Each structure stands twice: as structure tokens, then as C-alpha cells.
Amino acid sequence: MLKRRYQAEVESALARQAAVVLLGPRQAGKTTLALTIAETRPSTYLDLESPQDRAKLAEPELYFAQHPDELIILDEIHRAPEIFRTLRGVIDRARRKGKRTGLFLLLGSAAIDLLRQSGETLAGRIEYVNMGPLDALEVGARAATQERLWLRGGFPDSFLAASDEDSFRLRQSFIRTYLERDVQQFGPRVPAETLNRLWTMLAHNQATLLNASRLAAALDMSSPTIARYIDLLADLLLVRRLPPFHANGGKRLVKSPKVYVRDSGIVHALLGLRTLDDLLGHPVSGASWEGFVLESLLSTAPPSAAASFYRTAAGAEMDLILELGGRAGRWAMEIKRSLAPTLSKGFHSAREDLAPTRTFVVYAGAERYPLAEGVEAIGHVAMAQELAQSLRR
After folding, report:
1. Domain annotation for the chain: domains and CATH numbers
2. How far is residue 285's CA from residue 324's CA, in Å, rounded to a whole number?
3. Is the C-alpha dihedral spanning 366, 369, 371, 375 positive or negative?
4. pLDDT tens digits, residue range 143-183?
5. Quick one: how far is CA 77 from the chain centroid?
6. Are 13 and 1 in contact (CB under 8 A)?
7. CA atoms of 149 and 144, how far apart (whole Å)
């Protein structure tokens, strides 16, 4: 079993706060991580998708009172949002008795509603940890392992499957389960076939600017409806909208976000790409690589880092800008699948406009070397390590 680097982050948060929310998409490994932490201390685990476990919380205060010295883990907390009101009183009473940290670990799969409900009720008593699928730093740096991660994506069952075909079938089942069951829990009733077509179109248009009107025309729907469905996929942590950089008032900047299906393995399953040869021969290959690298970098960057991309009407472009704050400042990154990356005029224009502290071209090789004055070529694993180390500076 792969050890997740999020474990130390969750344990540190539990040492600071009474309640910790571990947020991540379904099947990303949240439950496995929580149960691993439970082995290190007295704990009680409840799965709120289980009617039996939910019945135990018919009188939640009484139940929690029976486990005063244990970490209480509540999985799929969005199933019982009313519990947040109870948690506040339980936490405040525990604080008066001198127990201020490590009371509750809450696991959730939908970001926006959970953040709103918990934030309103447990302000000052809660901390959040975002957990994604496996990333480049968690699986080993070997080139073949990284290619497997790119092809299969980071959901542990898919990545660890016995064969590429088994992995592909698991991802197909994952998509079907989301469409037929999970999506319906969080938003208005959405026809599964309609959402599948939208999700597939987003995969075809990986790493491009969001054009809701074009998607709406293709699906015979209104633009507001398309926007609402994309909001739902983003809330379920399946789609990322990367906002445009907009601090430079003197340039004509694009205003639409770039949209990514967050897990590369889901992209490939939606497009029917079973093998690495299938992927390398498909037009989405470069965009898929960009999304794969982007997710690895954002998963290892400091949580406080603000991410965006830069594009002007004149053609200046940079794939990823991270505002790291402090001495680290602003880092600019261009992502290229090529083993011999070159620099375009648009790249140089963007760099001049942005004046970043550091500039990188993140490419598919492993060697690290200067490409130009102040510009460094770097492999995506080394770039992820660089960002992880920025947390400790």
C-alpha cells in the first residue's frame, strides 16, 4: 500500500484544531488514510452512507459523550450536514474541560456546500486539508511509473490495477457510478447521459478556454445550464477552472477560465484511450500532459498559493502562475510535453509582462538545465519537489 504524504498534514492539523475536514473526490483514498490514522490513537469510525452507522447518530450528543477520549471519524459527512450544529456544542464543552484538539476527523467529497456549512457553524474550531488522488511525488520518480500515473490517473485502485485494461474498466465504472448515483446527491436531477456528454466534451477540450455558449449549442442546452453543470463537477472536485491572471491593467487579457478534467486517467477513459500508444497517438495527448502536470504541481504547492494562467489578445501566454508570497514571490511556468522544449515569442512577452521571481519550463525529460537567462528547464517531478520544498522555506 502506498503511503500518502497527506497523513502528516492531517495529523498536524489534528494537533492544532478540534475538528479537521479531509476533502477529496470519492475513491481518492480518504477512508484508507483516516483508518491508518485511527490505528495510531483511540478512535471510532462511522460511515454515514451506512444506515446502521447513521442510526447511531439519532442522538448525536449522547453518542459522542460515550466516546469522550477518542478521535471520532465521520465519513461522507455531507450525508448528515445537520451534525455540524451539534459538533459546535460538543467541541465547546470539550474545550471547557481542557480538551481542545483532535476531536473529530470529517471526510467529505463535495467542496462548496461542505465548506459553507462547516465554516458557518464551526468558525475557529475547524481546519481543512485538501486531498487529491495520487500525484507525482507519491508514486516514485521512475519514468515508467510516471507514464503509468499519467495514463491511468491517480485514483489508487486505477493506478494499482493489475493491467491497463483492468484500470480502464475500473475508471469506466467510476464514471458510471458518479453519473448515475453520486452527482444526483449533490445537485438538481441531471440526466446521466447529458452529463456524460458534457464531461466527454470537456475531456476533448482539455486545457482550453471555457466557451459555455459553444458547449451549450453542441448539447442543445442554455449557457447558464452548462455553467451550472460545470459548477457541479467542480464542486465534486472532478473539474478544475483555472482563472486568468488579471492584475495587469495595461494589457488586453482573456477573461475566461481554462477548464481541466482533473484526473488524467478519467480524461483517457472518457475518450476511450486504453494504452499509452492510444494516448500518444491521440490529439489530446499534449493537453492531457498539461493537465496531468498542472494537477501534480498544484497538489504539492503551498495551500495558500494563488494559481492562474496568463494570456493576452496579442499572444503572450504562460500556462501556470503561482503567487507563493513572501520571499518566494511569483513563479511562472510553461508546461511542454516535448523532450527538447523551445521558447516562443509569446512566452518571452508573458515573462516580460509578469516579471516573475522565477521562471520554469516544465517538460517531459529529467535533466535540469538553463534555457535562457532566468529560465530553467525542469522535469515535472523535480518541479513538484521544488514546490513542496517551498513550504519549508
Report:
1. 6-130 (3.40.50.300), 143-390 (1.10.10.10)
2. 29
3. positive
4. 999 999 999 999 999 999 999 999 999 999 999 988 887 77
5. 19
6. no
7. 9
